[in-house]
Amino acid sequence: MKQSNGYSRAQIVLHWGVVLLLIASYVSHEAMKDSWRALRRGTEASGLGTAVHVWVGVTILVLSLARLALRARYGAPALPEGGNPILDLVAKLTHVALYALIVLIPASGIAAWFGGLSAAGDAHELMFNLLVAVAGLHVAGALYHQFVLRDGLMDRMRKPG
């Protein structure tokens, strides 16, 4: 994978855009659960919250694939020098998990909703809960770099490098 000095403007915009869309997805998930239950019972399954959840999920998938393409093209900055090898490995694995989940969650939701696959719906919900935990680890790491190590790591996601 290519190495860069910082993230591009497009990478930064997509990062924060996906974060905002994930929040919208979370806010709309109860409406989606209600519609999913109604669909399983054979009754009406629609509404604004459901539409928001579905199309936010589709948008997250598209933007996540764009993020992966940009990362393949432009790379990602190296971790700060002098880090702890175990924490650096945790950071790398956390990023792999984040990328995998932000693709697999909407893909499983699409398979569940449009394909009627209950197992995909179950996986979708389980992976979203896993994403919350992994994202929490990601945020904790960023805050550790910002306030304990004071190495400027978070600047990479605020201004293009």
Quick overview:
This protein is an all-alpha fold and 161 residues long. The chain is built from five helices and two strands, in the order E-H-H-H-E-H-H. The mean pLDDT is 92.
Which features would summarize this protein structure in a list?
5 helices, 161 residues, two-stranded parallel ribbon, 2 strands, mainly alpha
What does the model show?
This protein is mainly α and 161 residues long. The chain has one domain. 76% of the residues lie in helices and 2% in strands. The chain contains 5 helices and 2 strands; from the N terminus they run βαααβαα. The chain has helices at residues 9-27, 29-41, 48-74, 85-115, 118-149; strands spanning 3-4, 76-77. A two-stranded parallel ribbon has the order 1-2. α1 (9-27) packs antiparallel against α3, α2 packs across α3 and α4 packs antiparallel against α5 (118-149). 20% of the residues are buried.
Fold topology:
Blueprint: E1 3-4, H1 9-27, H2 29-41, H3 48-74, E2 76-77, H4 85-115, H5 118-149
Parallel strand pairs: 1-2
Helix pairs in contact: 1-3, 2-3, 3-4, 4-5
Q: In DSSP terms, counting alpha (H) and pi (I) runs of 4 or more, how many helices? A: 5
Tally of distinct domains: 1
Strand content: under 5%
CA-to-CA gap between the ends?
A: 17 Å
Q: What is the 3D form? A: elongated
Number of strands: 2
Please state the CA-atom Rg, rounded to the nearest Å.
18 Å
**What percent of the residues sit in helical stretches (DSSP H or I)?**
over 70%
The main sheet orders its strands as 1-2
What is the chain-wise order of helices and strands?
Answer: EHHHEHH
Uncertain parts:
none
Helix/sheet category: mainly alpha
Mean pLDDT: 92
Q: Identify the quaternary structure here.
A: single chain
Biggest sheet features:
2 strands, parallel
